[in-house]
């Protein structure tokens, strides 16, 4: 003789109601876990756009050339730091933070060893196609050549107090410098990394060639 209890329970003695409860996702609990993660990702995106994570990745073992006929910006901040490659080797650089950067053109080139020989990885943009722009451009460079014109400048300022470029600050007690409006003509630099937000590369061209021509 069957009973209501027999109908509601399966072979394992688990009721349909219980199975329903087990199958449900506890959305309130899941949301409580997910919201902080979403906020963290969003915050990281903002920090990256500000250039604060410019030196957070391991650099390759190859420096590269960067050049431009003219670079201008609403602000500049710089201090010395060390970039590291995956093998732990350190590369001393001058971190150069540039606020709202405008370049008449840009060229980046790196020599890369391959089984076929040394190739030149080259990227160019700007020129006749129009200006190149970037927010919070950060270059970790070994050197920088060019004819520069600065607005107000502060040389020897504590790197932790730099405030001309968002997110570009060094360690307390370290040497730093910053300036207002800048213009550099004939830019040439050897760099280990370059990052930025809102890049607009008009007329971009990428090429890889054996024994290709570099920027300079």
Automatic annotation (TrEMBL):
Transmembrane segments: 31-59
Chain residue ranges for the region called Disordered: 1-21
Keyword terms of this UniProt record: Membrane, Transmembrane, Transmembrane helix
Protein name: DUF6230 family protein
């Amino acid at each position: 003789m069957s009973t209501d209890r027999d109908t509601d329970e399966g072979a394992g003695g688990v009721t349909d109601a219980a199975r329903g409860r087990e199958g449900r996702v506890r959305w309130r609990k899941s949301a409580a876990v997910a919201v902080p993660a979403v906020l963290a990702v969003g915050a990281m995106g903002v920090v990256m756009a500000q250039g604060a994570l410019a030196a957070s990745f391991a650099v390759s073992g190859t420096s590269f050339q960067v050049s431009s006929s003219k670079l201008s910006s609403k602000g500049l901040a710089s201090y010395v730091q060390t970039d590291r490659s995956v093998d732990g080797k350190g590369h001393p650089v001058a971190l150069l933070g540039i606020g709202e950067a405008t370049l008449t053109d840009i060229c980046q080139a790196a020599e890369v060893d391959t089984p076929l020989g040394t190739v030149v990885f080259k990227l160019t943009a700007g020129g006749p196609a129009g200006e190149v722009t970037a927010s919070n451009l950060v270059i970790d460079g070994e050197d920088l050549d060019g004819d520069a014109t600065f607005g107000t400048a502060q040389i020897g300022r504590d790197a932790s107090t730099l405030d001309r470029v968002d997110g570009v600050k060094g360690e307390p007690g370290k040497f730093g410098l910053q300036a207002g409006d800048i213009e550099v003509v004939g830019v040439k630099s050897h760099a280990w990394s370059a990052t930025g937000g809102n890049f607009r590369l008009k007329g971009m061209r990428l090429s890889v060639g054996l024994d290709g021509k570099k920027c300079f």
